[in-house]
Amino acid sequence: MEKTFVMVKPDGVQRGLIGEVIARLERRGLKLAGAKFMRVGMELAETHYGIHKGKPFYEPLINYITSAPVMAMVWTGPNAVAAVRQTMGATRPTEAAPGSVRHDFGLEVGRNLTHASDSVENGEAEVALWFDESELVEWGRAIDEWVFE
Ligand code: IDP
Ligand code: MG
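^ thats the input. predicted complex w/ magnesium ion below
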């Protein structure tokens, strides 16, 4: 089953939106496979956002992500990567679809509340970066056969 890495960023945590994000993913039918509430260290932040190094928003981004705790999660399901990106909305809140998290709660790209892996390949890499194998839970959910074809 496809896995994706999802994070409620510091602004989402400060604004009390952990439950809102989890509720939306659960309601959609996605299945939780791991979660931890944590402070992001500089090394992890720089590895996670390494692809953006050198861009003008890189340093503010590292400051933002290390400024307060985050909720790091792994969600699974068919097409989990695309489904979660859609639920979170486009990177810029003013371009995010109405009904998405970034549209419904955000205004600025530098305070866009959540992170979600953008490809299956990056999903696997990000899950491995943020979670130890032993922190992931494989479990049978009673409704699985009614959500997964
Ligand atoms: P994504 O989070 O939708 O995958 P990316 O382009 O990978 O978006 O950028 C990573 C994060 O960097 C964004 O979520 C946002 O927090 C921040 N970011 C991206 N572009 C800008 C910008 O132009 N100004 C400020 N922050 C930005
Ligand atoms: Mg990205």
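DSSP finds eight helices and four strands in the chain.
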